[in-house]
Amino acid sequence: MFSKLTTVLAVGGVAVITSNPGSGMHALVQEHQMGILIEAENQQALNDGIAAAMSQDTTQFSQNARRYAEQHLSLEGVMRGYEQLLLTC
């Protein structure tokens, strides 16, 4: 996960993310509905994504982003995941 994206998620921000289907980032963001996904290398899609972020109600994205950060990116979340991994070995 990119460091800037981690910060955006932690503060419950709305991220416009350029990522193509089939990538890990695309799957993660889509699964958790925590940002606006935009096809990479597509300027018009990026313009449309930014416009959507500014004009639509993005409350659900913000809440999902914050929840994901708390569960998976916080110190407690990381340690909990590490502990679960150790227990399955």
UniProtKB/TrEMBL annotation:
Residues 13-69 form the Glycosyl transferase family domain. It holds the Pfam family Glycos_transf_1. This is Glycosyl transferase family 1 domain-containing protein.
